[in-house]
């Protein structure tokens, strides 16, 4: 397991490093990166999810067990983070960043790894993972922002944040289209496939460009707490949930990949928009992106040993 995971991680590392280098040397105009991230998040990645789910052979995949495994584990860890908040001794906005760092994940890295490990089947499994935990994580994060963030949200604001999320909309639409039994038109299918494929390299370049390590030195404790939840508690809870539901094989591997991913760079945007601590969020994203390079192969190789015992 370690060898294929490392090989799948290699292009991820190289593209993130390239994005960081391009941003630092000023090769592209500074205004390029926010627009590129917006294009990837609102257009390219939704095309990938819609195409992956609309064309997937879902009958051969454990859709319900995979989705339930992820939702149960995510909710359990989220509840633990909230329950232990009094021990953290940080203010509300800082807590929202720790919470996001504990439960939110980077879609681009997850889909790239799943595709590298299992090809088209991996993309379909990744799309199911996103369909299950993107809405779950967004609901949890928006509710936490409404309670602890400096910009309070009412019920209408929470609902709008969830229903307008492009990843939620595209995943639900892809599943719905798949169950209609209609195939994608000949001209539309390759266009969606090409747009979706473009989301992965562009998204990884944007991750590298967005990394900021300056804030990490100021927030050692909260960053360590968020990373412990993300790289230890989340995969452990996922494994327990998977064992209870009988999930195994590639579906289990992809589930664990998604639950040990670093926090998405979009968490920084959410922190700025909804009253979180953006500086702390930037530090969490940067540190977790580095830690994930070691955490992902370690977790998966460790789980592989447990399963074979």
UniProtKB/TrEMBL annotation:
The keyword Cell membrane applies. The keyword Nucleus does not apply. Keywords: Cell membrane, Membrane, Transmembrane, Transmembrane helix, Transport. It is a multi-pass membrane protein. It comes from the Bacteria. InterPro entries: Mem_transp_PIN-like, Na+/solute_symporter_sf. It is found in: Cell membrane. Its main location: membrane. Gene3D superfamilies: 1.20.1530.20. The chain crosses the membrane at residues 6-27, 39-58, 64-84, 105-126, 132-150, 162-180, 200-219, 231-258, 278-300. Belongs to the auxin efflux carrier (TC 2.A.69) family. This is Transporter. It comes from Methylorubrum suomiense. The lineage of its organism: Bacteria, Pseudomonadati, Pseudomonadota, Alphaproteobacteria, Hyphomicrobiales.
């Amino acid at each position: 397991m370690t060898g294929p995971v490392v090989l799948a991680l290699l292009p991820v590392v190289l593209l993130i490093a390239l994005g960081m280098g391009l941003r630092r040397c000023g090769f592209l105009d500074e205004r390029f990166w926010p627009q590129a991230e917006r294009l990837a998040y609102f257009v390219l990645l939704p095309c990938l999810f819609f195409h992956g789910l609309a064309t997937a052979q879902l009958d051969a995949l454990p859709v319900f067990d995979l989705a339930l495994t992820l939702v149960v584990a995510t909710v359990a860890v989220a509840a633990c983070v909230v329950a232990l908040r009094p021990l953290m001794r940080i203010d509300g906005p800082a807590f929202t960043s720790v919470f996001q760092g504990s439960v939110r994940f980077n879609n681009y890295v997850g889909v790239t790894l799943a595709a590298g490990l299992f090809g088209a089947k991996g993309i379909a499994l990744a799309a199911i993972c996103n369909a299950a935990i993107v809405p779950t994580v967004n609901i949890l994060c928006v509710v936490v922002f409404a309670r602890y963030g400096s910009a309070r949200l009412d019920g209408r604001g929470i609902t709008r944040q969830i229903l307008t999320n492009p990843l939620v909309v595209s995943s639900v639409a892809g599943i719905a289209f798949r169950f209609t039994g209609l195939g994608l038109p000949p001209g539309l299918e390759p266009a969606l496939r090409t747009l979706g494929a473009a989301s992965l390299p562009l998204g990884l370049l944007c991750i590298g460009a967005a990394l900021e390590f300056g804030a990490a030195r100021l927030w050692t404790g909260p960053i360590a707490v968020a990373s412990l939840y993300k790289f230890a508690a989340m995969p452990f809870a996922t494994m327990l949930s998977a064992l209870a539901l009988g999930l195994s094989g590639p579906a289990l591997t992809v589930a664990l990949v998604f639950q040990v991913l670093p926090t998405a760079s979009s968490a920084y945007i959410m922190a700025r928009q909804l009253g979180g601590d953006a500086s702390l969020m930037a530090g969490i994203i940067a540190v977790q992106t580095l830690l994930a390079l070691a955490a992902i192969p370690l977790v998966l190789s460790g789980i592989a040993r447990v399963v074979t015992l």
